[in-house]
Hints:
Elements: H1 3-25, H2 29-45, H3 47-54, H4 60-74, H5 78-89, H6 96-110, E1 113-120, H7 126-140, E2 143-150, E3 158-162, E4 165-168, H8 171-185
Parallel strand pairs: 1-2
Antiparallel strand pairs: 1-3, 3-4
Helix pairs in contact: 1-6, 2-6, 4-5
Amino acid sequence: MSEPASISAGIAKRYATAIFEIANENNNLGGLESSISDLSAALDGNADLRNLLSSPLVSREEQEAAIVALAKKMGLAPVMQNSLALMAQKRRLFVVPQLLAVLRDMLADARGEVVADVTSAKALTKTQSDKLAKTLSERIGKTVTINATVDETIIGGLVVKVGSKMIDSSIRSKLNSLQNAMKEVG
């Protein structure tokens, strides 16, 4: 990870921890979760909002006024509104996308859930997805949600990533291993 990216991740983690703890103390994790979803949808659908958060040309006061108005209009949880205002005052709004990702992970962890990123050559059927989730749940000891993507370049098999662990049983990786082994021999 590059230094600026690790700094951003550290900033996002500190704000996320504070927001999560306050929401948990106030028994408002549900409100926090809906705020995260609403804010994520707004960021995904609006380039002007993304520019507002990351542009150094927008003054601190303009950022704060805009984000406070937006948060109130969207009806975000009070802890999220206050945190966004503080982040604007400190010129830290550029970490909002990372903040939302960290908060999602914290909420999933609090519910005893984990997300598994699964890449396959063809789309998984409902039965395959359910069977994979059940198998992973038994191994990990937590409820597993499958985030499936299709990548035809892996030819066949699966690439499963859960947290920091990755299992690559794709044909592409096996062919690459075989190719490397053949280079060593000849």
